[in-house]
From TrEMBL:
Keyword Nucleus included in the entry's annotation: yes
SMART domains associated with the record: Mab-21
UniProt source species: Regulus satrapa
Protein name: Inositol 1,4,5-trisphosphate receptor-interacting protein
Pfam families: Mab-21_C
Originating gene: Itprip
Coiled-coil residue spans: 38-72
Length: 549
């Protein structure tokens, strides 16, 4: 009990002591200060809240930006992986396609010589012949006699006249040239349809090639696309001609032919010094600052030389001589006072080594050398061997064989069609190449005169196949079956076959024109032949035979 009372007393005393009335009056302003402090705390709390909101907004923006970057990175990474997968599939597809194409080309090139030799091959062709009426033997024989033989009788006399005049002109050319500085001109040779006896279209034009050589002590070093040097695909069939001194090798150095001392160094082959063409290279018709013969320079030189030669001998003749084509310096025309004229081509060429293959500067009236990449590139012509091959095969064929007749008829039809629908990429050289392939593929007895109709159909079907495949191989290049009697250079026999239709693969407009012209020629064939054929009674069709060539 006393302890409880003591505790109550202490509590009362403490309450009385802590009563506000016991504080001094100067402390009466405390409530007012408390209100200001509370107001300031509220303001500070508001500022802190706004600052927190601002920081939260910045953090949210940063998080959104980070998410966008991560998403973009994921998209980029996915696209990279997708692109890598796509590139891998594309590369794999290209490799498979190239392997298939190489296999197909190897298979076809391995059998290209035998394409026209089997009747089964011919049986699957001829789709373009559906609905085409082909003339019979009697109509073809009458057409050949009236239209072909009747217009080619003067070719022999014309060849003789042109060759005689060309020899006289070249002799005068040699006399006006400086033998110490100008090119040396050799005798001309006749090539082409006029000398292979299948020319049918007028005007008759003789093609003569004129080999020339550099003056001493220079010589020509010839390089071809198949000689081991790297030539791009569009330069196949071409070569270059380098003018060198006779005592130099192909690189212009004699160190390989001279025994140098062990302590002697060839300055020409050092890393510091390099070969420079001599200052008189341009006088030798070379391209500027090179040692390579320039076809344009040769054309200009030849035209000037022919003009000088004609001025020297013009008084001996009663006709005029002029250049018929500005872009062909050797395209000449003889004009008689009576108004008649004779055209012929005199084209400069360079002999390839010791063969009858020639580098030709240009092709008159032909698109074979169109779009030549450079004037230092020369096209190779095998015209001399083509003429010899036809002569060689003709000796093994039956009397009055129909091989030349087929080419003449086909050339006539093609020329007539081109006069109606305009020229196309298909040329007479392509037609002759078809004949050369079939002459080698078929036995001799198949070219008997009574088989003219069948062989003409074979030529058309073979040409149709080549147009469909866009492949017509050069007869000599890559052909290991060339008769040894011709003495044809082995380097060209071992070369890859040259596709004469390759320039038309990427030029679809020209290729389409070729195909359309061929099909139009087939449809118009009977009409063109009947136009020049007399009416033949049906009862006598079996008794008509072709006159000998």
């Amino acid at each position: 009990m006393p302890v409880g009372l003591f505790r109550v007393c202490v509590l009362v005393i403490t309450a009385i002591v802590n009563h506000p009335l016991f504080f001094p009056k100067e402390n009466g302003t405390v409530p007012e200060n408390t209100e200001e402090i509370i107001q300031k705390m509220k303001e500070r709390e508001e500022r802190l809240r706004l600052e927190r909101l601002r920081l939260e907004q910045e953090i949210a923006d940063q998080e959104a930006t980070q998410k966008a970057l991560e998403k973009a990175a994921v998209v980029v990474e996915g696209s990279k992986e997708e692109k890598v997968r796509w590139d891998m599939w594309t590369a794999l597809s290209m490799v498979i396609f190239l392997l298939i194409e190489l296999w197909r080309q190897d298979f076809q090139e391995g059998n290209w010589q035998d394409t026209g030799g089997e009747e089964d091959d011919m049986a699957v062709l001829g789709k373009a012949f559906k609905g085409v009426t082909f003339p019979n033997k009697a109509v073809l024989a009458s057409f050949y006699e009236k239209r072909i033989l009747g217009t080619t009788g003067d070719m022999a006399r014309m060849r003789e006249m042109v060759e005689g005049f060309a020899d006289d002109l070249l002799e005068a050319l040699r006399s006006v040239c400086n033998r110490d500085a100008d090119m040396e001109v050799e005798d001309c040779m006749g090539v082409g349809s006029m000398y292979e006896n299948w020319r049918v279209r007028k005007p008759f034009v003789c093609d003569l090639i004129v080999p020339f050589a550099p003056p001493e002590p220079y010589c020509f070093r010839c390089q071809t696309w198949c000689s081991g040097d790297s030539f791009p695909p569009d330069e196949q069939g071409y070569g270059t001609i380098k003018v060198c001194r006779a005592d130099e090798d192909a690189t212009g150095c004699i160190c390989d032919k001279t025994k140098l001392g062990e302590d002697m160094l060839c300055l020409l082959h050092s890393q510091v010094n390099s070969t420079r063409p001599s200052s008189d290279m341009e006088d030798l018709l070379c391209f500027k600052n090179t040692q390579y013969l320039d076809a344009d320079q040769v054309m200009k030189w030849f035209q000037i030389a022919v003009t000088k030669a004609w001025n020297r001998i013009s008084h001996k003749y009663e006709f005029d001589l002029s250049f018929s084509l500005l872009d062909s310096p050797g395209a000449l025309k003889i004009k008689f006072k009576s108004g008649k004229s004779i055209a012929f081509n005199l084209t400069p060429v360079v002999q390839y080594e010791n063969s009858d293959v020639y580098f030709i500067s240009h092709f008159p009236r032909s698109s074979l050398a169109a779009d030549v990449p450079s004037s230092t590139l020369w096209f190779l012509t095998f015209a001399v061997y083509e003429r010899r091959f036809i002569q060689l095969v003709s000796k093994t064929l039956p009397a009055n064989a129909c091989h030349v007749s087929c080419l003449q008829i086909l050339s006539f039809l093609h020329g007539k069609q081109c006069s109606l629908t305009g020229p196309s990429g298909l040329t007479n050289y392509h037609l002759k190449t078809v004949l050369l392939h079939l002459l080698q593929a078929r036995p001799s007895q198949d070219w008997a005169p009574e088989k003219l109709e069948a062989r003409l159909q074979d030529m058309l079907k073979f040409l149709e196949k080549c147009l469909h495949e866009k492949k017509l191989y050069h007869f000599f290049i890559g052909n290991g079956k060339v008769p040894a009697e011709l003495g044809f250079p082995i380097v060209f026999q071992r070369a890859e076959p040259l596709n004469l239709f390759r320039p038309f693969v990427l030029r679809r407009d020209i290729y389409r024109k070729m195909v359309d012209t061929f099909h139009e020629m087939l449809r118009n064939m009977s009409a063109l032949i009947n136009e020049y054929t007399v009416h033949i009674p049906l009862a006598h069709t079996n008794g008509i035979r072709k006159e000998p060539l």
